[in-house]
Amino acid sequence: MTQKGPVVSNRQAFRDFKIEKIFEAGLQLFGNEVKSLRAGEANLKGSFAKVDGEEIVLHNMHISPYEFSRDEQDPLRPRKLLLHRSEIRAIITKIAQRGYTLVPLKVYFRRGYAKVEIGLARGKKQYDKRASLKEKQVRREVDREVRSRR
Fold it and tell me: CA 24, 105, 110, 59: dihedral to nearest 10 degrees?
């Protein structure tokens, strides 16, 4: 049984942030968390990544406890992200600049390993959100007009 597409995605991140660069990171999990993630029992709402020394840690990602497991882990525990050292250095230098943050975009499996896509992002102001919404609406109307002319 291979799963297509992301297990969970953070669609709100694209609305609230301007994503400048995307990194793929491994996710350090326990066995029962992997089973729960495969079942789709996860949520990225309100989650963020933070630099702790020389590593990057994902906070507030909720993975529900696996129902057939005996041992209990905290569903909101911080989880270490596995990146190359050069990527970590690049992220640290960008985050040192004012206004940048790390936002998880989606969680998926690649070759059996849990991966998370994190975006180096800047927060959008209210007027930026309105402008991108208007641009999306205009693009949709143009596509609709092109389809009706065919």
Answer: 80
Alpha-helix residue ranges (DSSP H) falling in 42-125: 85-96
Q: Could you name the CATH architecture of 8-124?
A: Beta Barrel (2.40)
* Domain regions of the chain by residue span: 8-124
Per-residue pLDDT of the chain (150 residues; tens, 9 = 90+): 455 667 888 888 888 888 999 999 999 988 888 888 888 888 888 899 999 988 999 999 998 888 887 777 788 899 999 999 999 999 999 988 888 899 999 999 999 899 999 999 888 888 777 888 888 899 999 999 899 887
CA-wise closest residue to 20 among 89, 80, 102, 82: 102
The predicted model scores a pTM of 0.78
**Looking at residue 111, what DSSP letter applies?**
T
Q: Which of 15, 10, 16, 19 is nearest to 120 (CA)?
A: 19
Residues 6+ apart with CB under 8 A from 131: none
